[in-house]
Write a structure and sequence with these properties.
Layout (H helix, E strand, L loop, with lengths): L1 H34 L1 H23 L6 H14 L1 H13 L5 H19 L2 H8 L8 H14 L4 H14 L5 H18 L4 H8 L5 H16 L10 H10 L3 H18 L4 H10 L2 H14 L11 H8 L3 H16 L6 H11 L6 H28 L4 H10 L3
Length: 400
């Protein structure tokens, strides 16, 4: 009996050891999975999502909150900017996060990235060249760079984006956009939210494109200061600030109101397009285009109401085409799935009136060339059927 008892104890002990080995291997496999790039991205997403929801519950749908800043610092320190950016991009594509809160959050990721790297070129590289909630990471890098400098030196800041573009990212338009636009945000912070002073500083930038991007950055920072009450009547409130500044800044000011108006009006598209109807005629096309461009943040799939957005709320034929051009180009910022197939399906669903389908195919060709130039013409043939010729015209226009 004693031998039998001893034998049982040995078996029990052996089974316990085996069980512990299995448990150890299980956790090792989990840890190994987490250590892979995909595992790190998934782990970052699982940390970001509950934190994001908690911050919104705590602070509401606000711009630049301390809760979001703490979350940005925590996930950036744990997972690194590259993984965090990919996690945000994945969550955005899935429709789980978005809007001004996400854009503000990525600003804060950018700030933390520069603090960690202490190298603006490296920080921009880690933010990446694809959009995660509107290139906010790049904007935040510039904001932190200016904050660390302690003064808004005209010569140094004027050359900042040009130097980045020429030395580090000569082929990446997104980097130049993120830098010049970020300077507008940074100017508003440095000049204590004085819009006119910030816009005037933007005039120091050498290139017209950079000045325009800077105007929009400053105007967006100004727009974020509007509360829910300010957009109850957008014609009286949001229009007034833009109408009171010099004409050369007005278009940037008007279009910067669109993201805040879409969200704060609870996606009241009628009110948003009425806003565009009331802007000066010279800014109306840009306003309608911007509404279309921002709509992918709300409509996550091609079939989810995009067709109706432009056809129901825009009466004038030319403006409808402008709206759809913005909508199609805005979709490219997500870069998810097979863009060519998605564009082809969407364009085919449009009515033939006002040349919608041709405009759609032409704009799609332009964007497909930007995303994948070598295969873009072939993609037109595969996914655009009777619109392939117009799609190819868009591709060819980018080769000229």
């Amino acid at each position: 009996m004693k031998n039998l008892s001893t034998h049982k104890n040995i078996i029990t002990f052996a089974l316990l050891i085996l069980f512990l080995i299995i448990i150890a291997l299980f956790y090792l496999n989990i840890q190994t999975a987490k250590d892979t790039p995909d595992g790190q991205i998934t782990a970052a997403a699982s940390k970001i999502m509950p934190g994001f929801i908690s911050c919104i519950r705590t602070d509401g749908q606000s711009w630049r909150t301390s809760c979001m800043q703490e979350l940005a610092r925590a996930v950036q320190n744990k997972f690194g900017t590259v993984n965090v950016q990919e996690a945000i991009r994945m969550l955005e594509q899935q429709g789980q996060i978005g809007g001004l809160e996400c854009h503000g959050f990525t600003h804060q990721i950018g700030q933390e990235t520069l603090i960690q790297t202490n190298d603006i070129g490296l920080a921009f590289s880690q933010c990446g060249v694809t959009s995660a909630c509107g290139l906010g990471c790049h904007h935040g890098v510039v904001e932190e760079y200016v904050a660390q400098e302690g003064r808004f030196d005209i010569t140094k800041m004027r050359d900042l984006c040009t130097d980045l573009d020429n030395e580090l990212f000569s082929d990446e338009v997104a980097i130049r956009y993120g830098c010049s636009h970020g300077l507008g945000h940074a100017a508003m912070i440095s000049f204590q939210n004085n819009l006119l002073e910030s816009l005037t500083w933007c005039d120091n930038l050498t290139e017209e494109t950079d000045r325009g991007l800077c105007y929009i950055g400053a105007s967006m920072e100004d727009a974020f200061s509007f509360s829910q009450a300010d957009v109850v009547n957008p014609t009286e409130n949001l229009l007034s600030t833009c109408a009171d500044i010099p004409e050369r800044y007005q278009q940037a000011c008007f279009i910067s109101r669109i993201p805040i108006l879409i969200q704060e009006s609870n996606y009241n598209w009628k009110a948003v397009f009425e806003f565009c109807e009331n802007v000066p005629k010279g800014s109306r096309d840009a306003c309608v285009y911007t509404v279309g461009y921002n709509s992918p943040a709300v409509f996550k799939t091609m079939e989810d109401g995009w067709n109706d957005l432009c056809t129901l709320f825009v009466e004038e034929g030319d403006l409808r085409s402008t709206c759809m051009q913005g909508l199609i180009e805005g979709r490219s910022s997500f870069g998810a799935g097979n863009l060519a197939e998605a564009y082809g399906s969407f364009c085919a669903s449009l009515p033939n009136e006002y040349d919608y389908r041709d405009d759609c195919a032409y704009m799609s060709g332009i964007i497909l060339h930007d995303w994948n130039a070598p295969e873009s013409a072939q993609q037109c043939d595969v996914y655009f059927d009777d619109m392939a010729a117009m799609c190819k015209q868009g591709v060819d226009s980018m080769k000229e």
